[in-house]
Amino acid sequence: MSGNNLFFKNPLKFINENAGHLPEDGQFGAILARAGEGKTSFLMHLALYNLLRGENVLHICLGQPIKKVCLWYEEILQRISSQYESNNTDLMWEMILPHRFIMTFSVEDFSVKRLEERLGDLTEQGIFFPQIVLVDGLPIDKIDQATLIKLKALSKEHGFPMWFTVMIHREDNLEKTGNIPFSISPVSHLFEVIVQLRPAGNEINVQLIKGQKLDNVL
């Protein structure tokens, strides 16, 4: 059974993937939300969607142990299985595990050089070749532009897009010329796609801030 036959849906289905408007190799995407409004959960759904398509996902988490990240995957898969009354959880794990690699750093110890060294260890030994990289917990508003430029060059060299979670704040204003919160606006030109999560009652709406949307979403 392929990932396309499972019930898991693309959390970014409203972006025109066929027209090339999802981040490509060497490009960045950002998931914006305030604290507790679902950034990590959304990132996990994005990871699972790609994993179930057979793509290699490198999940980088700052400030959390690997055991906790693994627990997040288990909880979300169990929640989805319960929601859809599915018995495919074991099958999904079999599909996911060969394609997932979790890498953790402390926020203070993270650097492009350290990531490059660890990534080189994986690829040079033929252990893992990422096709998409997801980064959770990197404080984008405190990272200098030069670091992001180096990350962008690294992602292009190794041939994968990168997605980042970005915390925004209740008091965040928007740029006068657009809808980009100040937390990311100084480096927004480095991101090809930016989405923002907005709570609406018991649901979370996903707003496309930067990128191109499909005219019709099925």
Outline the secondary-structure elements:
Layout: E1 28-33, H1 39-51, E2 57-62, H2 66-83, H3 89-96, E3 100-105, H4 112-124, E4 132-136, H5 145-158, E5 162-167, E6 193-200, E7 203-210
Parallel strand pairs: 1-5, 1-6, 2-3, 2-4, 4-5
Antiparallel strand pairs: 6-7
Brief synopsis:
This protein is an alpha/beta fold and 218 residues long.
Keywords summarizing the entry:
single chain, 218 residues, alpha/beta, Rossmann fold, seven-stranded mixed beta sheet, 7 strands, globular, disordered N terminus
Please give the count of helices.
5
- Spans of at least 5 consecutive residues with low confidence: 1-7
Report the order of strands and helices. EHEHHEHEHEEE
Domain unit count: 1
Q: What share of residues are in beta strands?
A: 15-25%
CATH class: Alpha Beta
Structural class, from secondary structure content? alpha/beta
Which strand order spans the largest sheet, edge to edge or round the barrel? Answer: 3-2-4-5-1-6-7
Assign the CATH topology.
Rossmann fold
**Molecular shape:** globular
Roughly how much helix do the residues carry, as a percent range? 25-40%
**Largest beta-sheet characterization:** 7 strands, mixed
Number of strand elements: 7
Radius of gyration: 17 Å
Identify the CATH architecture: 3-Layer(aba) Sandwich
Tell me the span between the first and last alpha carbons. 23 Å
Question: Which whole number gives the mean pLDDT?
Answer: 85
> What's the name of the CATH homologous superfamily?
P-loop containing nucleotide triphosphate hydrolases
